Amino acid sequence: MELTAARSTFYGDIGHWADRTPVHEAASLGRALQLKQLIEAGASVNIVSVDNFTPLHDACIQAHPNIESVKLLVDHGASINPSLTALTASPLHEACIRGNPDCVQLMIDKGALLEAFDIYFGTPLHAACAKAHFDCALLLLNAGARVNATKFHETALHHAARAERVDLVELLVEFGGDVNITDNLGHKPRDYTKLESPASLCLLHYESNPLSLQQLCRIVLRTLATVFSLNLTLYRSTKAEMEVGTARPYFFGDIGFWAERTEVHKAAYQGQVSELQSLIQSGASVNIVAVDSITPLHEAAARGQTQCVRLLLDAGAQVDARNVDGSTPLCEACSIGNFECVRLLLEYGAKVNPTLTSRTTSPLHEACMGGNADCVRLVIAKGASLEAYDLYYGTPLHVACVNRHLECVKVLLNAGVRVNAARLHETPLHHAAKSNNVDMIELLVEFGANIYARDKYDRKPVDYTRPDTPSAHCLQLYESGPLSLQQLSRIALRMVLGTRAVDVT
After folding, report:
1. Would you state the pLDDT for residue 233?
2. For domain 251-323, which architecture applies?
3. Measured on CA atoms in the order 76, 80, 82, 84, is the torsion positive or negative?
4. Average pLDDT over every residue of 325-347
5. Cα–Cα nearest to 305, from 275, 261, 282
6. Are 354 and 328 in contact (CB under 8 A)?
7. Which fold has domain 391-505?
8. Element (H or E) spanning 4, and its range?
């Protein structure tokens, strides 16, 4: 411990690693006075927590109406554009997700990067549109955000269409949003709207009628005003890099060359077995990766196309290839709960415990998200780690409880998973209480869940239930009386057996 305390570890240019500090908590709760006292006492405003969050992230996530905490942090040197990792979005992203226009405007005024890219959301404009925050989107567009910026070919307009927000659709088109652009599935924004809905009719109108000369002039002027100066600096700094970059192919691991979606990808995704077989016989590579590192095997597994999966594997497809998020085809098959695909991939040697990165969950996590108890049972039987830990979700039991998959919870508990495993002090019972699922609460307690466990906000599971609901009454009953001797004996026996409980049963 003395050695650890004496050695500081740095993370980029943000500061020291630490667990959540009083500064984080004060920022998260909007306690400006407490935050000011901590800063004046010498606390760092750029210290990062174990999950890579700075106090400014926390302040923007909560985004209290007066945003005093945000202003205080910025005024005392908080980094507006901290170094990003696969785990973190920028403070501007968080403000857009939360939907506080004042916070977004402050971030923009202080120089926040409008095109900061997050692997999950894309740009801040993507985030604002995905959460249907019109005012935030308007601020970003007026500040010069690129309206057609893409995250794997998906634009902000795709998100607005999904949200069925006519006002957002009209705003984005007014700023030059492309109504005919297609994402990596070949879908235009209108393809994500409900038939005959106002958003669908709006997009159909834009598709069938050209913009007026006045609208086109406004779009051109905005583009020139906000992009022209950027282009000059970017051209000077990247011209040499572009010339070098085009002269050499870029490899991703040992999978192959980067490429756009190919005919092999499309055939695998759509389950066109004969077409896929014909392509393979004609010499097409089964291991070619798309721009997001997805192989045809990923596509087939993600859609449950079992025949295509077998065909690709027989042709030499790499069973444990990873996409840009680090997910393997087995993860994809588990996520949709396709038992046959999961079994087939395992038969061909897919790793049930692939090395995890900060972006990836394990196949067991994905199976618990998909909710197929048979898949969960199968990967456990093949040796899946019950305590595999994901930074966002925690353990597979956390995931099953969050997604309310009672049967998956039963399988995990019977296999010997730790019922009181915590993610930042939050247990699976907290999740069951949040979802007001009485059956799940009773099951977890039956396996020894601690009803008095407190999360990072010092809240017990009962504190997350609604008053006078069955879940609240259930937890209050457990708190008011001890478990029976029979229940305690069963819990003790399960704790002793652990993962051997499966063999016994």
Report:
1. 34
2. Alpha Horseshoe (1.25)
3. positive
4. 93
5. 275
6. yes
7. 1.25.40
8. helix 2-6
pLDDT at residue number 78: 92
For residues 245 and 241, give the distance between their C-alpha atoms in angstroms, rounded to a whole number: 6
Residue extent(s) of CATH 1.25.40.20 domains in the chain: 9-229, 251-323, 391-505
Which residue do the tokens 């652990």 mark?
498
- Rounded distance between C-alpha atoms, residue 379 and residue 51, angstroms: 28
Per DSSP, the three-state class of 136 is: helix
SS (H, E, C) 33-90: HHHHHHHHCCCCCCCECCCCCCHHHHHHHHCCCCCHHHHHHHHCCCCCCCCCCCCCCC
Q: What is the pLDDT of residues 55-95, one digit of tens each?
A: 998 888 875 556 888 999 999 999 999 877 656 789 999 89
For the record, the structure tokens of 185 come out as 């599935």
Give helix then strand counts, H and E, for the chain: 28, 4
d(CA 261, CA 292): 9
CA distance 393 to 399: 6
Residue 433 burial (CB < 10 Å; 0-12/13-18/19+)? buried
Q: What is the pTM of this model?
A: 0.51
CA distance 128 to 134: 7
Give the contacts of 5 (CB within 8 A, at least 6 positions apart): none
Q: Note the CATH number of domain 9-229.
A: 1.25.40.20
